[in-house]
Design goal:
129 residues, alpha+beta, Double Stranded RNA Binding Domain, 4-stranded mixed beta sheet, transmembrane, membrane
């Protein structure tokens, strides 16, 4: 089967290979646009919403060395400083709106995940008026 004369002239220039490439590029470009518009126009729903105003509760597992509690009766607050053995987290600070020793110990034990007995052994109190 013989090729037309103009096609035979193009054969040494590899134009029979290069001429269909722009056509293939246009087909891929149009196909990509169709797929992109289909994907972007599809409705979606978010499962979990970001809650920036909610405070997160974090559980820490640290070795507590000493707990220093400063009870300020006139302000009705107790400032607590916890020294730990962790090199990255050396101190923790809490402030509780209670001044009774038993309530302070209960709050510290709850925050640190300690027993009440362990908290009583580690805590040192300072009263301020």
């Amino acid at each position: 089967m013989s090729l037309p004369r103009w096609l035979q002239a193009l054969r040494p220039l590899w134009l029979e290979f290069w001429l269909p490439l722009p056509l293939l590029g246009i087909i891929f470009w149009l196909g990509g646009n169709v797929v992109t518009s289909q994907v972007l126009s599809r409705p979606y729903s978010t499962v979990s919403k970001l809650q920036a105003d909610a405070q997160q509760e974090v559980q820490l597992s640290v070795t507590v060395l000493v707990i220093k509690a400063e009870i300020e009766k006139n302000k009705g607050l107790t400032s607590v400083e916890v020294k730990t053995a962790d090199p990255e987290l050396k101190t923790l600070e809490f402030e509780f709106p209670v001044t009774e020793v038993s309530q302070v110990e209960a709050r510290i034990a709850q925050k640190l995940g300690l027993s009440r007995e362990d908290t009583k052994k580690l805590v040192r109190y300072q009263l301020k008026n």
